[in-house]
Amino acid sequence: MKATILSAVALFLLLSCAGGAVKDPVPANPVVSLSAAKDTNVTFDPAVLQRYQNEIKAFADKLTSKGNFNGSLLVAKDGQILFEYYKGFIYYKRKTDTITSTSAFHLASVSKTITATAVLKLWQEGKIGIDQSVSAVLPGFPLPKITIRSLLNHRSGLPNYVHYMEQLGWDKKRRITNKDVFDFIVNHYREIDIASWNTRFNYSNTNYALLALIVEKVSGQTFPDYVMENIFIPLGMSNSYVFTPQDSATAMPSYYYSGRQYAFDYLDLVYGDKNIYSTVQDLYKFDRALSTNKILMPAALEAAYMPYSFEKAGEHNYGLGWRMNLLKNGKKIIYHNGWWHGNRTSFCRLLDENVTIIALCNNDSKSIYSVKKMSDIFGQYLQKLDSEDDENTPTVAPVKRKTGAKKAVKARARKASTSKKNVTVSKKTTVKKTTTKTKTAATKKKK
Prior knowledge:
Elements: H1 2-16, E1 31-34, H2 46-65, E2 71-77, E3 80-87, E4 89-91, E5 96-98, E6 105-106, H3 111-124, H4 134-137, H5 148-152, H6 161-167, H7 178-188, H8 205-219, H9 223-232, E7 241-242, E8 276-278, H10 280-291, H11 298-304, E9 316-318, E10 323-326, E11 332-340, E12 343-350, E13 355-361, H12 403-446
Antiparallel strand pairs: 1-3, 2-3, 2-13, 4-5, 6-8, 7-8, 9-10, 10-11, 11-12, 12-13
Helix pairs in contact: 3-8, 7-8
């Protein structure tokens, strides 16, 4: 199946040349490439180009000198790649298989940008309504107010399945699928602490696991096949794929910062929220397709880049599949970061300057999120590393507890407290009596 798809990709590229020729793997390590091939007619002033490249390289040198950067980096402007950097190994601990331009990394939550694009593509084709109820597309879904848009912008109220499924008894020896996420909501929604619909932003992987199911239901294809045939192949993203169990032997592993490899666990089959693999060059092709309306029309992009959540003051907001910084000076950064196991990723886009910054790593290096600071090379973006950018999920999952259970817990606590007090009083009384007896005996003996 994978061989057939790859052959189809090669044939498509040969006939259409839509995505340009795929470069051969770069053998050296690390690899730094400046001023790669253009895909527009923009010509930079040599002095301006040199300044961009010097500042980017200085930033990249500082970034990669801190700790063991193991990954890839690409910066482009106006259709011209200004800087590419590849360092490290696919098998990080063994130091084997050099990372090159064709090495596909797990995108973690950057996958959401592609999932959202698949949904918006179906919307612009008239196959779904973005404000349609999820229950109208996925029969049996028990929460009729939740819409497709509220899944996309994380205002559905659904908490993260990563937490509540385990707390409510999921057997961790069983690997969860997207259908399991759906079925668990159907069977346990009264026990899950689901917030009121569309009242606040609540970043949740559950939303995008359900969106992948919606793509499957509407298209009649599996999510991996739909994304391959409607996004990756048409855009020439020849090293990208949605992970399935068949990819287990070849997918790039990820590592703790210490070098220990992450094990495959029970959460690693769910896609849509994560589990898309790609390269910096393929993501740049995706970026160019968005910027030139090759895959989504202006109306869909306008909806995607629109902020939806204002109940919390600050520059952070979320569109449809994209985070954003809305700065006081009117500037806007469209971006998404990701974290899953040892995979840390960042995909930043400056629409005003037509700039793209992409960084991927597989050894749990949090410093990768600082690449957004490079925005200031191109404009007044006043960047600082923000804790909200880490993609770290909360450690406590919201799970409802029945009122009766709460009362029982409190009653047991009161009983235990009372018993403890009684024991203490009893001990004091015993000690007092013993002391009195001792004193009496001593007095008699003295007499």
